[in-house]
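Researcher: Please predict.
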Amino acid sequence: MNNKNEINFRKANTTDIPVIWEIIQQAIERRRKDGSQQWQNGYPNLQTVESDVSKDFGYVITIDDEVAVFAALIFNDEPAYSTIEGAWLTTGEFLVIHRIAVSEKFAGQGLVKKLFDYIEDFVRSQNVASIKVDTNFDNIAMLKILESKGYSYCGEVFLAGGVRKAFEKVLM
């Protein structure tokens, strides 16, 4: 990426769904090739993406108006997080990040780290104290990103049919 590219973080809309679904499928395949068990059981699927967008949970990073990254951002609602083997850092309002996926075209360009920066700014603007996120034990790329962005390991949650490593970052 050069500096001429226009990068935007925005809410996803229904016209984005086909490209978001393509990006999710690329991410599923990338997880498989990396030897990860994450996303190898039919989740997330097209209905998940459609639901994310219709409920205003879907957000994208675009580069020159092309969708490059997708994530679902959900305030205060993750039933699986009510039971953790370990302990969350906070008990107040929080944002959950789910279903992060990067287009193959833009992979390896540091966009997920940029996504976390955008999300953290967005969450602060909503006066919400923390961000919670989980990932598979074998999603090495995401584990490295979470560590580099200052997320604290809090324990394990049971989600989408499996145990996930749970992390939290306190913003305020």
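Model: The chain has a mean pLDDT of 93.
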